[in-house]
Design the sequence.
């Protein structure tokens, strides 16, 4: 986004009441007049520092004048604003838009953290519970005739599960 568009977007925010005081506006005008490259001529600087005109009028005229001059002039205004009123510069609506990421874009670092915050032990525990429930449901289903196969699988279970659990499962299978 060009600085002229940003300045047009920020104009209402900057000209609203009590955002910028006269001293800050004068400092910005002086900086634009004195710092290389000279953005404002001496006559223009006097016009925008005229205490007879209201602050709102002077500031809105300054912003419109800078927009007519081009992108480089608007960029220098933002630089002067940052130097003289950093808090206000950080609160600009155009700065907030630049700081916020695209809502359709996925933040891969955050997504990676969200997927891996439990760790591998949690995954293994959930997988073991799911596998155990599936095996238990498969063995308890009265329509299947695989009790012999289940006994063979449970016979090798001391490697996987404790003997106490294996004995309970074997007793359950014998009751069936």
Sequence:
């Amino acid at each position: 986004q060009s600085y002229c568009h940003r300045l047009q977007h920020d104009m209402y925010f900057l000209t609203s009441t009590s955002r910028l005081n006269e001293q800050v506006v004068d400092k910005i005008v002086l900086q634009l007049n004195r710092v290389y490259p000279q953005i404002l001529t001496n006559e223009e600087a006097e016009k925008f520092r005229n205490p007879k005109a209201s602050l709102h009028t002077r500031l809105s005229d300054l912003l419109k004048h800078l927009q007519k001059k081009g992108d480089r002039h608007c960029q220098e205004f933002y630089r002067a604003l940052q130097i003289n009123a950093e808090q206000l510069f950080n609160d600009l609506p155009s700065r907030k838009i630049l700081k916020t990421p695209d809502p359709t874009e996925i933040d891969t670092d955050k997504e990676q953290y969200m997927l891996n915050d439990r760790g591998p032990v949690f995954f293994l525990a959930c997988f073991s519970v799911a596998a155990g429930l599936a095996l238990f449901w498969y063995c308890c289903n009265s329509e299947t005739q695989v009790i012999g196969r289940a006994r063979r699988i449970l016979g090798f279970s001391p490697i996987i599960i404790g003997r106490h659990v294996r004995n309970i499962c074997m007793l359950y299978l014998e009751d069936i």
